[in-house]
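Late entry, written up from scratch paper. The run itself happened at the end of the previous shift, but nothing got recorded in the book at the time, so transcribing now.
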Amino acid sequence: MVSRGCAYGRCTFCSEGRLDGKVDLVSDFAWIEELDSAAPGAALYFQDSIFPGGHRIREGLLPLLRRLGREWGCQVYLPMLTERRLAELAEHGCTYLYTGIESGASTVLNGIRKPGLDRQLVLARARWVADQGLALGLSLMFGAMTTEGELLETPSTLAETRDLATAILDTSVDVAGFYPNVQTVLPGTPLAKGLQRSGKALDFYAMPRAPIFRGLEDGEIGYNFLSLQPFSANRQRLARLITVVAVMMKTSS
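Output as recorded:
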């Protein structure tokens, strides 16, 4: 990681947002050369919330990465990714981008305060990535809730997400993988604070588990729409449908 925090800072489920727009950025990149010497031939991956820009990256880090001449990847936020920025990353050796598209349904995206990721934008960015010859990893987040605990996911929104995934594959972009998760309540997030204001008692030291999600990217996660709410047959059916759709996604990529 070369930075901490996310300047976008609005997603209800994320613990890394900075509403002041500021991101903490390291000032020295010499340690990357040390990693290069310690692990020759390995790819580099930057786990920053969003890979930063600015003159320090452009004049210091990117030329270093190009000089090292090895594959590297990073995380991006699609609405902030321009064609010029994408070309710059590719020119300096980037071969892989990872991003969260979360859902294909506008109702879900609006409910988690990530409305900028509409279908048209996602497909346009996928074509840009394809044009540069980069691979793309896509995170999907199922079972989203509002900050009051209202379940946003339905069989219809799942179908919209599946349709978006198919459309992304049709752009000819090299999809390295679809990575399915279920929304997890993390301490300190707007989601956690909203649930607590709604009367939910959240004990983050003893979070309940939902074994049905064991096969998803995060495995048997903590607080989610099954473990927060009283058991219901409809929620259980939705959970089963999510696991089926998630398997389909991983297979198709």
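The chain is about 40% helix and 15% strand.
(Scratch paper discarded after transcription.)
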